[in-house]
Amino acid sequence: MRRVVCPGSFDPVTNGHLDVIARASKLYDEVVVAVLINQSKKGLFTVDERLELLRDVTKEFGNIDVQSFTGLIVDFCRERDIPAIIKGLRAVSDFDYELQMAQMNNSLSGVETLFVATSPLYSFLSSSLVKEVAAYGGDVSGLVPAAVLDRLRDKLGHA
Ligand code: PNS
């Protein structure tokens, strides 16, 4: 069985993430979406909420397993015997840091990183900007799945 890990903070999952996960799901038998538990950074959504939203919006693909993790992503991959990580690249500005992480992860454990070019529809999209725009009452309805929009409305009063 060919498996790949798609790691991230997913605070919250956006249509850009979903595009990458959907494309990975066509290339692999199973995609493990790995949500980082970051003790030093308080998110808008709890890790449990992120997991629940991710499970909800990826259930239609049929081959997505959503998990949380702490520590190094390479340890998560090693423990599950998964040889590759998949990431979306939105723009050249993502490239430097992503290349650095890919090289570090490869040197730590031999894990490979594959990049998919994000759809231009979502090249400007990030969870942080979605939260900021939504917090000030901007319309993010085309940028996140409907379930996320509902939860943003619950949390912020509007979205
Ligand atoms: O959605 P994000 O916040 O851009 O995702 C970043 C993430 C979670 C993929 C990255 O920070 C990560 O892999 N963190 C786990 C800790 C780790 O392995 N750090 C070394 C990376 S070289």
Give the topology.
Blueprint: E1 3-8, H1 15-27, E2 30-36, H2 47-58, E3 64-69, H3 73-80, E4 84-89, H4 92-109, E5 112-117, H5 127-135, H6 146-156
Parallel strand pairs: 1-2, 2-3, 4-5
4'-phosphopantetheine (PNS) is lined by residues 7-9, 36, 72-73, 101, 104-105.
In words, what does this structure look like?
The structure is a single chain. The protein has 159 residues and is α/β, with parallel strands linked by helices. The chain is built from six helices and five strands; from the N terminus they run E-H-E-H-E-H-E-H-E-H-H. It has helices at 15-27, 47-58, 73-80, 92-109, 127-135, 146-156, and strands spanning 3-8, 30-36, 64-69, 84-89, 112-117. The strands form two sheets. Strands 1-2-3 form a three-stranded parallel sheet, sandwiched between helices. Strand 2 (30-36), helix 2 (47-58) and strand 3 (64-69) form a beta-alpha-beta unit. Helix 3 crosses helix 4. The longest helix is centred in the middle third of the chain and has 18 residues, at 92-109. It is globular and about 45 Å long. It starts with a strand and ends with a helix. The mean pLDDT is 96. Bound molecules: 4'-phosphopantetheine. Residues 7-9, 36, 72-73, 101, 104-105 line the site of 4'-phosphopantetheine. 4'-phosphopantetheine is lined by residues 7-9, 36, 72-73, 101, 104-105.
